[in-house]
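pinging the channel bc i need a second pair of eyes. not urgent but kinda urgent?? the chain im working w is below, pasted from the shared doc
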Amino acid sequence: MQIVTVDGRDRATFEQFFELRDAVRRESEFPAGLGLEESLVLFTGEHSAMRVDGLGLVDGDTWLGIAWLDWWLQENTHVVEVELAVAAQYRRTGVGSRLLEAVAELARKDGRRLLSGSALGDATTGESAGTAFAAARGFVRKHVDLHQVLELPLSAERLDELDQPVAGYEIIQWREHAPEEWLEQFAEALSAMTVDVPTGELDHDPITWTTERVREAEALRIKQGRFSFTTVAVDADGQLAAYTQMGGSAANPDRLYQWDTFVRPEHRGRRLGMAVKVPNFRALQAELDHPAVLHTWNAPTNTPMIAVNVHLGFRPVAQRTDWELEL
């Protein structure tokens, strides 16, 4: 057996790496994750905020397991985020431990002091073979997100029932690019979201979004073949008070994502979360010609957003627990 490095430049090797990762993810009833081409763009491109690469443990031509590594380059430069995936027939044979040791060695050489990763578990208990693996190797549980899903499309009648415009706010929508007149405020709202969202005890820094960083993220998303729908609420003074984003990729048309929903603190308590979500659903579904599953993740402590999701019809399918290991 040997450890191989995966950087995306050898497509055949990358496809084997991706195939194993995707197979493990698809063991879930509701798999979520990037497609092959989306992932390859991350591995082969130059990105200011993050470098992405991986490792594989192979025995001849057989791939036993992989490690996907995210190296933060702006914030969180003390962290390496790692995802391990082991082929079903090779679990409990030391493959995961071998990969973890190799990752830790790389992290130390790069001056990182923390490994961070997540594990999927039961929707009620949060426990799984992945959480047991993490705990046994010294990782500490730091945060929990509830994974909820919603089957689309919602009926026109249901959307009409949910639609509750809020007086005093204008609804504005866009697709792949934030309009120039809203770009600065949108970047500020994205930054505020990373400060506001519950992250438990994770040793992670909030992300600072600039207008340049927003444009870079938009360009990356387009290069990956992904798409997005954004709806914002603007008050009478021209302040961007709330936003929501949903999207997906042409490679996995039945797998969609509810990304951020954020309401500025001074505008909360006015049902703005629902006021931006429903128009965004309408925009998304106007181009949806097939059934799809919409995925979202929220901390259980984020009770207002969980309540909104339940009202929309989302149901829980798993917990995602975040773990950290000091090196």
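so The two ends are 25 Å apart (CA to CA). and Residues 149-319 form a domain with the Aminopeptidase fold (CATH 3.40.630.30). — does that match what u expected or am i reading it wrong
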